[in-house]
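#onboarding

Welcome to the new folks! Below is a worked example of what a typical request in this channel looks like: someone posts a single protein sequence, and someone else replies with the predicted structure as tokens. Don't worry about understanding the tokens yet, we'll cover that in week two.

Example request:
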Amino acid sequence: MSVEGNARQEEGWREAGRRVAPLLRSYTAAVVTGHDERAAAFAALGIADTEAPYRSVVIANLWGTPAIDPLIDAAEDAPGVSDCFTYGISLTSAAQVSSRNERLAIIGSGTEPMDQFQVFRSRRWKAYSERLLEAGSLLLLLAPAEADSVHELIAQVDGIVLLGVNLVPSAPHARVIARITDPIMHREESREETGFPWKRTLTIAASLLLIAAGVAAGLKYFWLRQPIVAPAPITADSAITAASSTPESAGSSTAAIAGLPPISNPADSATSARFSVEILAANTQSGAIFTLRKYRATIPAGTVSAIPVGPDQALWYKVIGGAFAKREDADSLLVSLRRKKIIPDSAGAVVETPLAFLVDTIAADAGMMARVKKSVDSLAKGGISPYGLTQADGSARVYTGAFSTAAESKQYADQLRSAGMNPVLVYRTGRYP
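Example response:
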């Protein structure tokens, strides 16, 4: 392939990275993996291009070769990954701010040969990603899919970004956050279009004229055949009915037309656990999850909901606690959280959030509570914030998120689908154990 062709392909991988970057918005650490190290480097740079305006990004080269260091702007002869594990240098010290983007830091391969077995299985990556979680940053680790021990590295992060491969052989069940099959190549204009633009212009103009003539003739025929009917008067009752319509009351078909998740159990609306306490609203999911984990023992049915806010529909991540059928129970939780200084005296509020995504159902038996805990712990590792509620028949349901309307839940539904889950929106029922 020519130099120009290589450059276009590399830019194609970078553009593909930009396109999938929003899928990583709710995660803190991911392994970018495949068979092509250059593709991985440019895809990671594309992800950083999109994410840097929202949070800082760290890219680390664990491929085992310094060949891609110049591509990701790693400083020559600077300490890198191999030096961190050979000489005990901290990963934070090795991260150098990129000369091209002050919100991007790079950890190069290093000056010493890399022992991938030692590097991939080290718990330092888990500890480092937790520090970045507190800071609200994103960590991207570049590693080859065919490496024998790469599964040990993947186990320490939120998931993987796959490039040109269907799975990682040593980690076939790893969570796939995003999948990039090919670079996104922009189509070049043909010579005819480039050399004779007037031909293309005339062709388009003639086509538009023909379409316009056909539409005009069709409209004329349509209107001539329509009976004249007086418009129905607008009454106060009809105006009120239209104004009070919601996706929830309109039913599943209306929700589907609007692109909203349908509610699977509308009959449970009256008995839903609709009252909660809004504890915090953060502009990054990592910051919200950090708060939830810090106070999980004190926040019953705690979860994080990604909710679009304002005219630009910017995503905010709300920490929600409690799931009550009675408002006074939510009031009591708010008072308790303020007394414990988890929420400042002037902060927090009781909110109505009857909707959630059902992610698991546990049958009633002697070991049910242990199975609920196991399900919650397993799902939490995937970057979501689940919680269990005991049902009237003794069984349990595991939910994630808490929303006032189906419209609020749409963005979170998209995130769950990108994580390989099948989100089922329901009125949440039950009580916290």
